[in-house]
Amino acid sequence: MLDALKKKLNEEVSKLHHELTVTLPAEIRRAVEMGDLRENSEYKAALERQRLVQARLGQLGSRLTKLSQIDITQIATDSVGLGSRVIVLDQDTKVEETYHFVFGDAVELEDNHVTMASPIGRSMLGKKKGDVVVLKLPAGTRKLKVVKLVTIHEAKPEG
User: Is residue 139 classed exposed, middle or buried when 0-12, 13-18 and 19+ CB atoms within 10 A define those classes?
Assistant: First the structure.
């Protein structure tokens, strides 16, 4: 899971770095050659895109640094933690739900992905199969029973 995320982020860094060092300078040069920069929308757009790319590269660098500091050996092997896939049963509605616990600042969450920093992530951290989690939300309180747990150690590598 962590390796796949690092690979995805590194690919984005590579594309953005190419855009920042090759594509955008060429666009800026072309816009400068057109003359008056005060009313040159191509020049302004290229500079704005350059700022956005630089900001995104900074975010990605910070995220990659945080990811590299995660020691997978420190993640519990028998309870909910980063990378766990958990099936819970709502004690009131008797509906099963599946959650996959992901890195705290995940930007692009997929269906059923929950960050460890979210209310459900914080309340489920350290819970084991059979435990009942009381989740207090603005809309009310939910009781969720952990019926299945697959930790990051048991999960099949993504490929």
Answer: exposed
